[in-house]
Design a protein that fits this description.
Distance between the termini: 41 Å
Number of helices: 5
CATH architecture: 4-Layer Sandwich
Strand order of the largest sheet: 1-2-3-4-5-6
Shape: globular
CATH class: Alpha Beta
Strand content: 15-25%
Oligomer: single chain
Number of strands: 11
Helix content: 10-25%
Radius of gyration: 16 Å
Number of domains: 1
CATH topology: Metallo-beta-lactamase, Chain A
Length: 213
């Protein structure tokens, strides 16, 4: 599996181009992201844009990239209606309006998306940061694209935005501890291959700690 990482600005989420045809999350800075992608490939090679959740910093550029590439847009069914809600998806915090995205594919837990010969992304529904947050697990390479569910060094996604749920996040992270993860590709911060299973275990401890307060 080939992964290209993009981050077009300070407040942007990470974007990941997988096998030159699947883009995970899009960030905010549309023109900068498109320019970066076009240095690597013809943007029309992108077939699918997967949004790990509805928040503006992960979705804002999706509309324009979908138009330029012809790619389909996928998001979990529980977050799809929130793409147009400026308050829930945090667009209002950036002083912006939600992008006009009509998802083509509504994802469900356990769904598998083929990305190459012998390679597929398994959709893992991980609510807590948002109702329809997902992670994507590629078993052949033991890679996890974690959105804003977990981050390196035991960090976890916020639950104080509308739609957040601390108990749900803890249950979601517990689900991730059952995976064997070699490389973590988080929604923010740097990727890591350093004892990722241990780092996810730390995230679970942190999340359980927050539940006590």
């Amino acid at each position: 599996m080939q992964v290209k990482h993009f981050n077009a600005g300070l407040y942007d989420a990470n974007s990941y181009l997988i096998n030159a045809k699947v883009l995970v999350d899009t960030g905010i800075n549309t023109s900068a992201l498109i320019a970066a992608i076009e240095k690597e490939i013809d943007i029309k090679e992108i077939e699918l844009i997967i949004l790990t959740h509805c928040h503006f910093d992960h979705t804002a550029a999706a509309e324009e990239i979908a138009k330029k590439s012809g790619a389909k847009v996928a998001i979990h069914t529980d977050d799809a209606p929130l793409l147009k809600n400026d308050d829930v998806n945090a667009a209002s915090l950036f002083g912006r309006r939600s992008p006009h995205i009509e998802p083509d594919i509504l994802l469900e837990n356990g769904q598998k998306i083929k990305i190459g010969e012998g390679e597929e992304l398994e959709v893992i529904h991980t609510p807590g940061h948002t109702p329809g947050g997902i992670c994507l697990y590629e078993p052949a390479s033991k890679s996890l694209f974690s959105g804003d569910t977990v981050f390196p060094d035991g960090s976890i996604g916020r639950t104080d935005f509308e739609g957040g749920n601390p108990s749900a996040l803890t249950a979601s992270i517990s689900k991730l501890t059952e995976l064997d993860v070699k490389t973590l590709y988080p929604g923010h911060g740097i990727s890591t291959s350093d004892d990722v299973n241990g780092q996810i275990g730390m995230s679970l401890k942190m999340s359980r700690g927050f539940l006590r307060f």
